[in-house]
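Protocol step 6 of 9: fold each sequence in the batch and record its structure tokens directly after the sequence line. For illustration, a two-sequence batch is reproduced in full.

Sequence one:
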Amino acid sequence: MTKWVLVFLLAAWSAPACASEAVAVCQELTLEVQGRGFYEREIDSCDGIKNCHERPDGSFYYEVPDTRFKVIEAEGGAECPAKGSLLDISEEVSSDQIRASLVAITSMGPDGIVSGMMLDHIRPMDPQSPVKEVSLASVTHIVPCGKKDTTMGSGAYDACCEGLMAVGVFAEGETSCEERQLSGGYACAACGDGLCEGPYENSCSCVQDCPGQ
């Protein structure tokens, strides 16, 4: 596995710049945007901080961009996230589809060793795009894709592995599908393969495979 040393400044880190070891986890990811938003990060003061706000109770926070991607393709590494996995990064990305490398960063800060995942060499899928994305972004969360017949929380909707589909989960009974659907999550099933099988495929969740069930 290729290793190299990077020296960079990370504004979100309180540690001063220092030599950091970066290990390539996945050489090439193709990612598609699933959602954009912000999350709140606590801070002691708003002095000199953009997008900083004071709450009614006197505490402070600033808004950090949050972009969620789905892995469409992954090449060049045994530790690449599987297709269908979700990645959240703390940067605003305007392109709907990008390519990037995934690296693991380990750095020595004043409070000890700091480690995490980052996207490096971020670029739009369209080589003619005038948009110039950030070159380095912190990965705040990775949701591994769900395998066949596994359930996923509602926040991980559509994070099923390649060839699977996120379907609703329904209780047994004779009432309508709407009345029997369970809230708060989904299941990953091979819906669409022409076979009505598995604990989560039925006439409510996958009518194309189970039309007369």
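Sequence two, same batch, same settings:
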Amino acid sequence: MKIEFEKFYSYKSKSSIPAIIGVPILLILIPLILLVVVIFLVFAGITSVFSNKRKNTDRIIDEQKPYFLIKRDNFTIELVEHDDEEYTSLEDYWYSDVYDEDTTLYLAKTSPEIPGLHNKFITTFMKEIKDGVMLQIVEYPGEMVSVPSSWIIYLNYHSLNIERLDEIGPYLLYNNDQDMYIIEGFNQGGKIQLKIKMPGGM
């Protein structure tokens, strides 16, 4: 299937506040920030006493439940949190440079095993299109490369063949709810927008 993307990038601008103005502002903000941190820690300490037992129980129950990104009659994709060296390295970069609020990077376990997807690290992004789905794989582009990148792949629902469509870079992708032909993405440094171009439409 021929699917192409028109890419648009935007980057966060650096602060234009002059240094001579920034110093007094920092002198005012630092005590306020410290006060907020102290209040938060006290509040968190009190509430954790009452909530830890419930959270631990919920966590055990959640960890026992398999998390399926896709579950169809002829195949499944289960998302698994992993702890090997490669996953830790990818996750550390992902949290520091892409997204640091929730877990969005998982090891894909497919049944049956799908070459090019099984045991690959993917995000929770998925977009159904034609007779298949687009997913996002995250990996290092080479052995000597320290910064991971990501690719959009296409998985055919019937043949279970994988096709790599385009390299996107270290962005967390998500669907645009207003336009089915637009995919959005972001990291700590900026945003990306992908416009899907394909013959015959979706």
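Proceed to step 7 once all outputs are recorded. Observation for sequence two: The mean pLDDT is 82.
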